[in-house]
Design goal:
VanY-like_core_dom; Zn_M74/Hedgehog-like; three-stranded antiparallel β-sheet; hydrolase; globular; protease
């Protein structure tokens, strides 16, 4: 953990550590790939969403970052 990082969550506060988010590979890690586009179209059917901050024009573009819809329900 680097406390000077503007995007790293403090220990115990990460939505990854809390089980609400995952970082995916397998082609999803790049915007515009068939895998990313499929997940973008189908994620909510399986309980996942791509948060606004992680979109290509978001404050931290991360195609690989996906969150459980439960994360939005709890926020």
């Amino acid at each position: 953990y680097d406390p000077s990082s503007p995007i790293a969550a403090p220990p115990g506060c990460s939505n990854h550590g809390l089980g609400y988010a995952v970082d995916l590979g397998g082609g999803v890690q790049a915007f515009g790939t068939p895998q990313y586009e499929w997940l973008k179209q189908n994620a909510e059917t399986y309980g996942w969403t791509h948060p606004d901050f992680a979109e290509p024009d978001g404050r931290v573009p991360e195609p690989w970052h996906w969150e459980s819809v439960l994360a939005r329900a709890d926020s």
